[in-house]
């Protein structure tokens, strides 16, 4: 009978009241919506998944990415949050084991001298003192009879895994934001170079109209119109310089530097945008690749374990304790058998009446679980939407760039032709001004289309959960999480 009582805690230790966990179902998806003109790209086997931005073939971007990953404060915050969650898991696991304490004390007691008068005579008693030495070793343990500790650990572990996925998501967001800002800055460089060339052409046009006016061939209004167009373009150039500065400042913050001391040299007219082909995984693979989906799923698991924690409150708690030590008024005799003492105890506690508080907490836990399930499904649907939208954007923007390039070439030719006709005096300057404005707009639109294609490629990479590998598109997320875990564990 005694053996049965001793084994009872061990037999009940595996009991858990958390519902059996299954990953929530999501809407079935086996393919992407057909997009005219799109063909699956061949995976770039020479591009490592973690360094997907190297596909843009820009050494400056590669350098900035390294600096951002090492110094970005938002990423550092995500690392610290993950480490905090990992420490919380270790704390929860410690509850499986007894708590052991060691106490030592020395007590010195003294009484003062006293005087007593009896029948007219006085007697005195001297002061007394004593010293007591004690050493006590104690242990207490609350066996996990109904799975409260086990489910608490499961909750903490799932939360830790969610924070690791959040870390991967923070890194992916940082990489995407930095790439977008940098590519936009380079497009701004191209816009500034285009404006600079346009201003030179407008200056020449102003000189032509001035000469025509001085010769009595053209009215003064032609000069005014040329001056207005030149000043307007100069104002637009200043606005573009401001835009570039804003992108430069944003990049400085992302790489952890002071914008006041951070600069990126302009590349002028050497901009040659590269748009990589991004292999698109099947919809089912997105569930394994995207860190935000992984985080949402782990939060569901944590909420499921919390239900078990709250259900365990309906059952009694058992606490076991044991103390042993030595107590003596002599240090030399402290550790003798005569000075030894020990005690063993057990305590059972149960809540008899709480007016529905425990039931309410269980209902709260269940609804928190339902909320996390809904969030997981919403995150998944949003992920599918992100990929589909950016897949369409990649195809449409490629077509637009081709058409805008044709429009820009035609507008440039029209501008030059009308300017020659104006010199010959066969047309009014209004026609030239209109052609010049059309050509400038076409050039700006072409540059914007080019950077939009690059940014769409970045967005598609983010929507897919990161870069790619030729061998396996679905194992990349695990590799990235392992890399993030290794970096997060560094001191």
From TrEMBL:
GO molecular function, one term: efflux transmembrane transporter activity
InterPro entries (alphabetical): MdtP/NodT-like, OMP_efflux
Keyword terms, alphabetized: Lipoprotein, Membrane, Palmitate, Signal, Transmembrane, Transmembrane beta strand
Subcellular location per the Swiss-Prot or TrEMBL entry: Cell membrane
Record's bilayer topology term: Lipid-anchor
Domain of life: Bacteria
Segments for region (Disordered): 23-49
GO cellular component: plasma membrane
Gene3D superfamilies xrefs: Outer membrane efflux proteins (OEP) (1.20.1600.10)
Signal peptide (UniProt feature, chain positions): 1-18
Similarity field: Belongs to the outer membrane factor (OMF) (TC 1.B.17) family.
Protein name per UniProt: Efflux transporter outer membrane subunit
């Amino acid at each position: 009978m005694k053996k049965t009582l001793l084994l009872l805690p061990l037999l009940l230790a595996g009991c858990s009241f958390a519902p059996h966990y299954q990953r929530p179902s999501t809407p079935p998806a086996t393919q992407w919506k057909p997009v005219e003109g799109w063909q699956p790209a061949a995976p770039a086997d020479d591009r490592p998944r973690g360094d997907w931005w190297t596909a843009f073939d820009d050494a400056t971007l590669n350098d900035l990415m390294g600096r951002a990953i090492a110094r970005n404060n938002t990423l550092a915050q995500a690392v610290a949050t993950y480490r905090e969650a990992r420490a919380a898991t270790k704390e929860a696991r410690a509850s499986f084991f007894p708590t052991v304490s060691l106490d030592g004390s020395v007590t010195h007691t003294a009484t003062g001298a006293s005087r007593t008068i009896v029948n007219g005579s006085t007697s005195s008693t001297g002061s007394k003192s004593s010293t007591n030495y004690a050493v006590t070793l104690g242990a207490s343990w609350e066996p996990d009879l109904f799975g409260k500790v086990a489910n608490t650990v499961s909750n903490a572990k799932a939360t830790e895994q969610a924070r690791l996925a959040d870390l991967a998501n923070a890194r992916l967001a940082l990489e995407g934001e930095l790439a977008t800002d940098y590519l936009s800055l380079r497009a701004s460089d191209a816009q500034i170079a285009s404006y600079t060339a346009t201003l030179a052409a407008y200056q020449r046009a102003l000189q032509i109209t001035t000469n025509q006016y001085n010769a009595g061939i053209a009215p003064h209004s032609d000069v005014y119109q040329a001056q207005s167009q030149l000043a307007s373009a100069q104002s637009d150039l200043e606005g573009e310089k401001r835009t570039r500065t804003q992108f430069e400042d944003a990049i400085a913050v992302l790489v952890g530097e002071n914008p006041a001391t951070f600069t990126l040299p302009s590349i002028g007219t050497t901009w040659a945008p590269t748009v990589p082909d991004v292999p698109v995984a099947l919809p089912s693979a997105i569930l394994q690749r995207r860190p935000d989906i992984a985080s949402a799923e782990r939060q569901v698991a944590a909420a499921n374990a919390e239900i078990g924690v709250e259900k365990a409150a309906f059952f009694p708690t058992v606490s076991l304790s044991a103390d042993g030590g030595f107590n003596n008024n002599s240090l030399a005799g402290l550790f003798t058998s005569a000075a030894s003492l020990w005690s063993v105890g057990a305590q059972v506690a149960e809540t008899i009446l709480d007016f529905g508080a425990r039931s309410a907490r269980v209902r709260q836990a269940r609804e928190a679980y339902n909320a996390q399930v809904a969030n997981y499904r919403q995150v998944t649907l949003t992920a599918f939407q992100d990929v589909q939208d950016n897949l369409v954007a990649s195809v449409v923007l490629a077509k637009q760039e081709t058409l805008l390039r044709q429009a820009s070439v035609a507008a440039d030719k029209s501008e030059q032709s009308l300017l020659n006709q104006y010199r010959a005096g066969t047309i009014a300057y209004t026609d030239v001004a209109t052609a010049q404005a059309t050509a400038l707009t076409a050039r700006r639109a072409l540059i914007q289309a080019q950077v939009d294609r690059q940014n769409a490629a970045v967005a598609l990479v983010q929507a897919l959960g990161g870069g790619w590998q030729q061998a396996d598109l679905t194992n990349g997320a695990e590799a990235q999480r392992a890399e993030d875990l290794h970096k997060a564990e560094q001191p």
